[in-house]
């Protein structure tokens, strides 16, 4: 009954979002399928649960024996009856603890397994999936939905089973004690339970509303505090106080409704429960007076009746909890069954050994899945020969980064083909393709981990010597050596403990360490000071040497050292050649170069050259 009156009960999903119940309850199968992987724990939990439920029912029986055999027999030896009761209590305590341990263990284990399976599947999915499904929404499925399932496996199911056993066992016991009284009790239970359930539901709704109002007050406080200077500078103190006042009053009004309901519920519970008990005792007393019922029977009857009524009360909550968990399981099952848009074929072709480092785009046409009406690449063809450095330049949105996305097979083009070392990407395993490439992205991605782990991210078996060699080549050795704990130093969330230029050099060292034949390099456009720029440039030059490099180039030095420059616009190559010949052509490249290099300050992110 306490669950019904708990106004801090966890929030329930609004019923209008719930799909048909039969369909939803079926979703719980995926939870059950995982739970049965642990038959030992299920067996222990079931035994402990059964023993605990039986011990609970034995307590009224113990009282009956004490009253009838002990007290009523006129001061005989009552010790054995109390000893039996103590043993029952001990069994109840141990069995309850064991039941709690095993069902909670199962709940946590099932949730851990679901989280692992979902994450394993998410890691297989192509980037397109994460563009269509918000990461924050997926994260909430991984945390709050799994928590709901944990509650069901770890609590609801055992509450349900325990109360079914206590309910049925209790009724049988009651019938053996006093059949007529039991029939009366069974009629009385719904009269007691239904109003409590009804008011309890209302109370839950009002409580939720009340919590929302408190959240409003919290939001308003932090807004005003955050904007205190503006409030005072604009002389809005009185208005802010009034605005806050109305939010506080509205919270108080809602709280008053909640308090009234709770007061009414308390009165109803006390009135109904104690009236019921009084009526039973009354009826029982008549029975005792005419000798048809013993005093112990009345005591046992009242205790068991309370247990049975409590069991029915708890069971009214179970179905709602199961539905909620079924909704959560359904949402997680969607993530589990999502098939990757990009996957290895049944029998992938092995890439040629040794790797050559050749990339070719043949007549590629591609539009992103979320923007099917605009082609990011149109009939695009490019052959990069082994060891060649090709600089890609062009205005923002020309399709430069898209080349990288397709080369790594994050998407499949709608027309034409992309090949690595002569093998069309869909015929090979994407993992083999990516194994041959190292990427230095424009925005360096560092993890909240040590410098060592960030550096060897693409090659976990790298030794410290190899890591330092890569750091040296990336001009990152000096600042890494100066970190308080060297390679063990923590980089902070997203590498916030490093400067922009240092982060880039870590990314370059990471790519170097992989020693791949192909390098995909998206030069950062962020403004670096002259010294960092020089250090990064030197590191890049070293990285590009002896590798096939496709570089989205923003620096004149990179462009000059490239074997070939291709100029892209609107998904196509509009010009190509070397720097001097392109300048002579006086086309798009010459225009971009003039903006960039002839002293006209412009946004580097707008014109990528
Ligand atoms: N994930 C995506 N979903 C939908 N459209 C995209 C996506 N990424 C890029 N595009 C679009 O595809 C086109 C080419 O984008 P791309 O990122 O290849 O340009 P870019 O030349 O690299 O530009 P920048 O120099 O600004 O990075 C643009 O019109 C862009 O809006």
Automatic annotation (TrEMBL):
Keyword flag Glycoprotein: no
CDD domains membership: ABC_6TM_bac_exporter_ABCB8_10_like
Any GO MF annotation of the entry: ATP binding
Region (Disordered): 1-20
ABC transmembrane type-1 domain boundaries: 43-324
Coiled-coil zones: none
Alphabetical list of SMART domains matching this protein: AAA (SM00382)
Keyword Transmembrane: yes
Membrane-topology annotation of the record: Multi-pass membrane protein
Keywords: ATP-binding, Membrane, Nucleotide-binding, Transmembrane, Transmembrane helix
Localization (cell): Cell membrane
Transmembrane segments: 42-61, 81-102, 152-175, 181-200, 263-282, 294-315
Pfam families assigned: ABC_membrane, ABC_tran
Sequence ranges assigned to domain ABC transporter in this UniProt record: 359-595
NCBIfam families in UniProt: MsbA_rel (TIGR02204)
Name of this protein: ATP-binding cassette domain-containing protein
Species annotation: Parasphingorhabdus cellanae
Organismal lineage: Bacteria, Pseudomonadati, Pseudomonadota, Alphaproteobacteria, Sphingomonadales
